[in-house]
Amino acid sequence: MSTTTTDPAVPGSGGFSPGSSRPVTGRGGARTLAVTSGKGGVGKTFVTANLAAALALRGQKVLVLDADLGLANLDVVLNLHPKLTLHDVFTEKATLEQAILPAPCGFSVLLAGSGMVEYSRLTPDVRDKLLHILELVKPRFDWVLLDTGAGISDVVLFSISMAADVLVVATPEPTSLTDAYATIKVLATQQGRREVGLLVNQANRVGEGKLICGQLQQVLQRFVGSQPGHPFKLELMGEVKSDQTVRQAVLKRQLVLEHYPGSDAAQAIKALANKLLAQGQGL
Ligand SMILES: Nc1ncnc2c1ncn2[C@@H]1O[C@H](COP(=O)(O)OP(=O)(O)OP(=O)(O)O)[C@@H](O)[C@H]1O
Ligand SMILES: [Mg+2]
C-alpha cells in the first residue's frame, strides 16, 4: 500500500494522516471532491450522481466512489445491481477493474454495498484500504467524487479528509443549517480547511442560497476565521430549487440530467459543474 506525505499546511489537498483527521498532500491525478452534509437526506447522492453526469457530458472522466460505507445507496439512485462492490475489492475477491462499473451518461462508479456493519467503525485497515484504492484510481480519472455519509462521525470525516475539496449540501431547514454549520466548523478546526463549498439544495426561491451562505459565513468567520492572514471562506457553489422532477427521477431511479435535462434542477447541476470546471484547481 502506498503512503502519503503529511502536509497539514496544505488544507484541501487530499489524503489523510493516520491518527488525525487533517487532510494531507496527495500526488496529482484526478481532482477529488467530497460531497457531504451535516444532516442526512438533504440530497448528497442526488447531487453527486447528477454532477458526475454533468461533468461526464462535458467530456470529463469521472468516478463516483460510494464513500457512505455501510449505508450506501448510490446503487439505488442509479438503478444498478452490482455483483461486485468495494467490499469485494477490500476482501480481494475482486479486482478494482471488475468493481468499477459504467453508470448512465458515461461516468463510472465504485459502489459500496449496503448493510456492512464492519464499516460503521473506522479501523486502520479500512482506512488504509480506502486510501490505497483512491491512490490507484486517481491517475485514471479527471475527477473522483466521494458521496459520503452525513454528520461528523470518524468514518465520515475520514472520507472527507481523503478529498482535496469539499462540497457541503444543505437545505434551508433550520436543522440542516445547524448541522451544516457544525460540519463546516469541524472541517475548519480539525482538517485545517480554509475554503469549503456550499450547495443549497431544495431552495424555496431564487437567491435563498446566497442569503444562507452569507449568514453561515458570518457565523463561521466569527468562530473559525478570526486568525489574521487565515480568513475562512464559504463559497456558494450552487443553488438547486425544490423541484418535483427530482422526486420523480429518484422514484424512477433515473438521473435528472438524463431524463429531465431541461428542468430547473438539471440546469442548476450543470451550472455547478461549469463553476467547478472554471475554477481549475481547487474550490
Ligand atoms: N432539489 C430537490 N427537489 C426536490 N426533492 C429533492 C431535491 N433534492 C433531493 N430531493 C429529495 O430528497 C431525497 C433524498 O435525497 P438523497 O438520497 O440524495 O439524500 P442524501 O443526502 O444522499 O441522503 P443520505 O444522508 O440518506 O445519504 C430524494 O429522494 C429526493 O426525493
Ligand atoms: Mg446518500
UniProtKB/TrEMBL annotation:
SUPFAM superfamilies: P-loop containing nucleoside triphosphate hydrolases
Superkingdom as given in the UniProt entry: Bacteria
CDD domains recorded: FlhG-like
Stretches for region Disordered: 1-30
Classification via InterPro entries: FlhG, MinD_FleN, P-loop_NTPase, ParA/MinD_ATPase, YlxH/NBP35
Keywords, sorted A to Z: ATP-binding, Nucleotide-binding
Official protein name in the record: MinD/ParA family protein
